[in-house]
Amino acid sequence: MSAAIEVAGLCYSYPDGTAALVDINFRIAPGECVALVGPSGAGKSTLAKCLVGFVLPAAGRVTVDGIAVEPRTLKAVRHRVGLIFQNPDDQLFMPTLFDDVAFGLLQSGVGGSELAERVGRALLDHGLAGLEKKFPGHLSGGQKRLAALAGVLAMNPAALVLDEPSANLDPRSRRNLINRLAALSNTRLIAGHDLEMALDLCSRVLLISGARLVADGPPTAVLGNAGLMAAHGLEVPHSLLPHRHDAAANGHHHG
User: Taking the alpha carbons of 50, 55, 56, 57 in that order, is the dihedral positive or negative?
Assistant: First the structure.
């Protein structure tokens, strides 16, 4: 079975020489939803950027949808994999929401009625219909996140890479985003600190720490391993803690 995303022997160092990623290896099957977790500074965002060629590895290779990520393939790669930035304001920069969602399509030569139809469908799919003329800066945090997602999904990418997608969202917007991501058939790699979201959405967790991939397995096995989590500066998600049910019965709920 061909992998949607394949990373082999990936190494990357920051300009000052600090190792950001050391010998990273994994494959993600088409349609799989995988979480990439780890302490701050572990290399999650750098790895996410490697997958779309925003940074190119010092050694090893990244293959997306059968295409090796290298300078001459970047355009083809970015048609196949969409990156949702941690901060939607980095992604939304056009005067209207319509222009933002249309941007990638225009870059790839889509125009006329097909452009209008695909933008319209993307906005409708993400609950943003009727906001076409709105300035993206005036949207709510949840709407901005959905607008960024709509712009990427309008391109019909084979894979999505999301960097901290639930950051700064209120509980309702977060749940709405989780439901939308769950409904997608695209391959999804979700990098971030929201471990409950990983449990909700993902069939697999990659744990990166100290620039290395230290665990790769089912979410409950990785995130529920108290020793492993503690060793890498993380905590077992609340929903996996054994005392949770007793606490709930006594009326003490910490969220």
Answer: negative
Segments of 128-237 assigned E as strands: 159-163, 187-191, 204-209, 212-217
Q: What is the pTM of this model?
A: 0.90
Q: Say which residue the tokens 């302490």 belong to.
A: 39
pLDDT digits (tens, 9 = 90+) for 47-71: 999 999 999 999 999 999 999 999 9
Task: Please report whether residue 51 resides in a domain.
Answer: yes
Q: Alpha-carbon distance 161 to 246, whole Å?
A: 37
**Alpha carbons 117 and 131: distance in angstroms, whole number:** 15
* Cα 80 to the center of its chain, rounded Å: 14
Q: How far apart are the first and last CA of the chain?
A: 41
CATH of the domain at 219: 3.40.50.300
